[in-house]
Hints:
Structural class: alpha/beta
Amino acid sequence: MAEQKSSLHDLSITLIQTNLYWEDVTANLAMLEEKIFSIQAATDLIILPEMFTTGFTMNPAKLAEPMNLHTTRWMKQMAAQTGAVVTGSVVMKENNNYYNRLLWVNPNGETDYYDKRHLFRMGKENQVYTGGSQRLIKELKGWKICPLICYDLRFPVWSRNSNLAYDLLIYVANWPQVRMYPWDSLLVARAIENQSYVIGVNRTGTDGNNVAHAGHSAVIDFTGKVLFREIDHEVIHQHTLDKKALTDFREKFPAYLDADTFQVS
């Protein structure tokens, strides 16, 4: 990849909106590897969809991996070779429980994770997977970043940016086409109420349960302005986020200082 040229106040992100092979880890990793290696310019963060190795499966007994096995090592390789953090969620097993787990993998191999808190009961996810209890806030180039997963988008308390805990909120998803209006609307709402950039990365195509997905991956600024949205088509999109613009806006319109205080139980 090209030499990194962004300033300390910029964050270069690359989102990958793609169709997924149903419950085929090998095929998805091969496909995504090709897409990642096609990225020409330097980037700081590569964002993949929810359950990017399988699609939104309720068959973890067949597909779940332990930490630091095949997919984790693949992500470490992608991060090392691109010089970017790689993130997205996969099906994981730990202590006889299954998790919809977002991995955050640094180029040096350091790995952290977030387990999806809000499990999609309409798809029986709550009957199969174990929910998480802790948010993850990561730092990258002076940015504080909070990655969440799909159905979490519907729960503003869990997403709340108390005391400016983060500058960028990310949702990776397998959000169905039939509910794209809430997806589009809630991404904008989360950006406005949290005075933060918001990125949503969704998949395309029809999964093995005949559920259609229409993408609508988006980059939204701290005022709620949609800077990018791709409907339906596969896309690899790079975008540079401006930290100074965010800081200036927060200083001029410090609504966060009047936010209600609370704790999530």
